[in-house]
Write a structure and sequence with these properties.
single chain, TIM Barrel, 16 helices, 12% strand
């Protein structure tokens, strides 16, 4: 297959020289692990004591990785990307809120985004996290098979109602709904709830998508069992495939509590697991839809090749590629030029509330081998190309 991801002119066509310089500076800083730790601590301290640093954050790391402070604020970015064939997944990235009023607010925001997206071809997906709609500990207790007391039962009923409300609205407006994956020890309860929503609303095509984190060695088996349920009950499967985002926490908890780690034994095993899930879904594409959330070039080529081998068109509406805004533009924009379906996760929210998301992005870029160095190489290549052109 022709290699397309080295074309930096396509990748950075939307970035001015100034924005490209900012991106280089940010990834250079992120590549230095002690600097990330110190910067995280200083930023959190400054925000907690209300120092006037939001403007600086907004002009640097926020604007690189986020679309804006509100859904309307994102539209300039949404429209620019869509001109190049890249769609958006508006992601209200406010995290760590754990009371009923915040869960209700998260539901209202999801409903608001569906209303906002239904008239815009540029926003084909809406997303939410299970813990945006209910307490982590409640999912965990259910996943462990514990009995809920009367108060907790009422609390869980409200979680179920929030899921039902947003899935029903997505179905009525023909907007696909991505449910993010989280830590393994709460995921069983979330899986069960998402499966119920799939069975109810994925009767003609995939509207509700669950997320499988393929650094877990058990997720391919889960997918196959879900397939059997779908065949028995007559519903379509929507799956967002990712490698995963909680590896250190997963390994630490397994070690502390003395159970087998759910994480694959190596990065290579995770890659094999991810590509095996891609293969399984392509072989069963008549009843499945794939959102391949990956920054991995080889996995992207693998999916492209399997589509070609199975005579699937580049723009088959059951297959999407997804990356995070501010990262892997070489994958996103070069795929779009070849008419593949591509969507960027576009986080938004008040600067202070989105900081946990931004910190996680910085920490992940520091810890994922090769990610930051690849970004830096591509940016440097494009800067040199532009200088040579001038």
């Amino acid at each position: 297959m022709t290699k397309i991801f080295d074309n930096t002119q396509n990748a950075f066509a939307l970035k001015s020289d100034t924005e490209l310089d900012r991106a280089y500076f940010l990834f250079k800083m992120i590549s230095i692990e002690p600097l990330v730790r110190i910067g995280t601590a200083v930023t959190n301290f400054a925000l907690n004591i209300n120092l006037p640093v939001e403007g600086l954050i907004r002009a640097t790391v926020f604007d690189h990785f986020c679309g804006g402070v509100s859904e309307t604020d994102c539209m300039q970015v949404v429209d620019k990307m869509y001109v190049k064939g890249v769609s958006s997944v508006l992601d209200y990235s406010v995290e760590g809120k754990e009371d009923e009023s915040c869960f209700d607010d998260a539901l209202q925001m999801a409903l608001k985004i569906i209303d906002f997206a239904k008239e815009k071809n540029s926003i084909p997906f809406v997303v939410f996290k299970p813990t945006g709609f209910g307490r982590f500990e409640l999912y965990e207790k259910l996943g462990e098979g514990q009995t809920l007391n009367e108060v907790e039962q009422a609390e869980w009923k409200r979680v179920e109602n929030r899921f039902e409300t947003v899935c029903k609205k997505a179905f009525e407006n023909d907007i696909s709904l991505l449910v993010d994956g989280e830590e393994s020890w709460m995921q069983d309860a979330a899986d069960e709830l998402v499966e119920r929503m799939m069975q109810k609303y994925n009767t003609k095509k995939a509207i509700v998508f669950n997320t499988l984190q393929m650094y877990r060695w058990d997720r391919l088996d889960y997918l196959k069992k879900l397939h059997e349920k779908a065949k028995s009950n007559g519903f379509f499967i929507g799956i967002k495939l990712v490698r995963g985002a909680y590896m250190e926490k997963e390994i630490a908890r397994a070690t502390e509590k003395g159970y087998q780690s759910p994480i694959c034994e190596s990065k290579e095993a995770t890659d094999v697991n991810f590509d095996a899930a891609i293969d399984y879904m392509i072989q069963n594409i008549d009843c499945m839809s794939i959102f391949a959330g990956t920054h991995n070039e080889l996995s992207s080529y693998t999916l492209m090749e399997k589509m070609k081998l199975n005579n699937l068109s580049n723009n088959d509406d059951r297959i999407w590629f997804g990356q995070l805004y501010g990262m892997s533009d070489n994958i996103s924009y070069n795929l779009a030029i070849e008419k593949y379906n591509v969507a960027k996760y576009l986080p938004f929210g008040p600067v202070k509330d989105v900081m946990p998301y931004l910190i996680r992005r910085a920490e992940e870029n520091t810890s994922v081998a090769g990610q930051t160095s690849r970004e830096l190489l591509l940016i440097k290549t494009e800067r040199n190309r532009r200088k040579g052109k001038n």
